Amino acid sequence: MSIIDALEHHLDSDAVLSSEEDLLCYAYDATGKSYMPLAVVFPRAPEDISLIMRVANEHRVSVIPRGAGSGMTGGSLPESGGIVLVMTQFDRILEIDTENLVAVVEPGVITSQLHKAVEAEGLFYPPDPASMNFSTLGGNIAENSGGMRAVKYGTTKEYILGLEVVLPSGEIIHTGSKCVKDVVGYNLTQLLVGSEGTLGIVTKAILKLLPLPEAKKTLTATFPSILDAGRTVSEIIRRKIIPTTMEFLDRHAVWCVDQYLQIGLAPGAGAFMLIEVDGDQDQVEKNIAKVREVCSANKAIEIQIAATAEEQDDLWRMRRSVSASLAHFKSAVKINEDIVVPRAKIPEIIQFIESVGERHEIRIVNFGHAGDGNIHLNVLPQNEQLETAHKAVDEIFDRTIELGGRISGEHGIGTSKREYIGKNLEPAAIAAMQAVKRAWDPNNILNPGKIFPE
Ligand SMILES: Cc1cc2nc3c(=O)[nH]c(=O)nc-3n(C[C@H](O)[C@H](O)[C@H](O)COP(=O)(O)OP(=O)(O)OC[C@H]3O[C@@H](n4cnc5c(N)ncnc54)[C@H](O)[C@@H]3O)c2cc1C
Q1: Which residues are near ligand 1 (CB < 6 Å)?
Q2: 146 C-alpha to ligand 1 centroid (Å)
Q3: Is the pLDDT of residue 329 over 70?
C-alpha cells in the first residue's frame, strides 16, 4: 500500500491532501523558501498523530509539524519531501483555571486569541511575538518564541508548565503538571520547548498565567546616537526599573520608518526608543517619570508620553512599521538575522555592524529589543552583493560571539542557521543533542535536517 493510501485508510478523506495545488499551499514559510511535500495531513486528535507516526515509521517517510508557517528559519519546511502535519485544527482553549492561574490549550490556538481570552478574566499570558496575530501556541512552544515583553517577563519557556506530546514512535506522553513545583524525573517539558518540532508533536499545553497588570504607560524618545540610547538602557536597569518593553531602531531604521510614515521625526535622530512600563497605577507613574529623567539626562532630543490608549497605539506605530518600511529599499533579498548580546553590549555590536556595512558598502538596518539584547539585523544587498552579504553576516556572528552573544535570540536555528551552530556550541554539545534526537527518533522521521548540519 502506498503511503497516501495508508494515510487515507486511517484518516477521514478530507484530512489528507495530495494534489499539487493543495501541496503548494503548505510548501513555504516566512523564509520565502518553498519545498513540495508528499502529502499534507490535518490530524484532529492525538490518536490520529500516533497513527500517522506509525505509518511514517513503516514507510520511512518524514513528518514535518506545522503551525501557521510564520517561522523565520525554515522549521516547518518539508525540505526533503515528506508529510506536512498541519496542527491548526487543534484550536481549542480547553480551560482557563482562575483558581490556579493556568490555562490548558491546544497548540493550534492563535497566540493573540489566548491573550484576549485570559485578559477577559483579568489574567495575563505575557509572551507576545510580533507574529502573535497569526502564529500558533504550538509554533511558539517549539521555537521558544520571544517578543517585546521578554525584558520583564521572559520568553515562552517561562510559561509552559506541562505538555501532552506524541513521540516520533507514535506513543503519547504527558510531561509536567498544573503544579507550581514538580521535580518528578528529567524536565522533559523544557527539553521539548525550543526543540523546533524535532523531538515530539505538542498536542496540549498547560500554561502559567499571571494577574493582568493594573496599568501601563508608553514613552518614545529620539536620541542623537545609538550610544546615547544604549546608555539610557543601562541606566534604567541600574536604577532598578525593569520596563515591560525597551525597543530600539537604529538610524537606518529610523530613516526607513520616517520615509514610510511621513511623520517628520526629529531631525538629527540617530536612534529611536520605545519604552513601556506596567504595574500598579502609582508605580507606573513613578517609573515613567524616572525613565523620562534618564532619557533627558542622556541627551534625548524629543520625548513623548502617551496619555490615552489611542496615543499609546500611535507611539507603537513607529516600532510596528519597521518591517513594512524596509520594502523602501529595493534589495535583491532580505537577510534577516536575530543575534543577541548581553544587553550592555548593544551599542558596541551596532557600531561594529555599521562598520561592516560601510566596509562592504552594504545597507544594514538594525532594530529590536534593547532591553534583552536581541537585535534584528536586516542585510539588504543588491544582486551582485549576495556573496559579500553572507561574508558580512559571518563577520557579525563572530563579533557577536566575542561579545558573549548567541547567533539566535528568538527565531531558532531551523535550516537557515544550522551551518553556523558550531560557532556557539562545542562539538561535544552538538553530539549530546544529536544523541537525544537519535534516542527519541531512531529512524529520523520527525522534522529531519533541522537544527544540525547533516
Ligand atoms: C512578521 C513576523 C514577526 C515575527 N516575530 C517574532 C517575534 O517577535 N518573536 C519570535 O520569537 N518569533 C517571531 N517570528 C517567528 C515566528 O512567528 C515564531 O517562531 C512562531 O512561534 C512560529 O509559529 P508558527 O505557528 O507559525 O509555527 P511554524 O512556523 O508553522 O513552525 C515553527 C516550528 O514549530 C514546529 N511546530 C509547529 N507546531 C508544532 C507542534 N504542535 N508540535 C511540535 N512542533 C511544532 C514546526 O515544525 C517548526 O519547526 C516572527 C515571524 C514573522 C513572520
Answers
A1: 29-30, 64-72, 75-76, 87, 107, 129-131, 135-136, 138-140, 142-143, 145-147, 196-197, 201-202, 323, 410-411, 447
A2: 10
A3: no
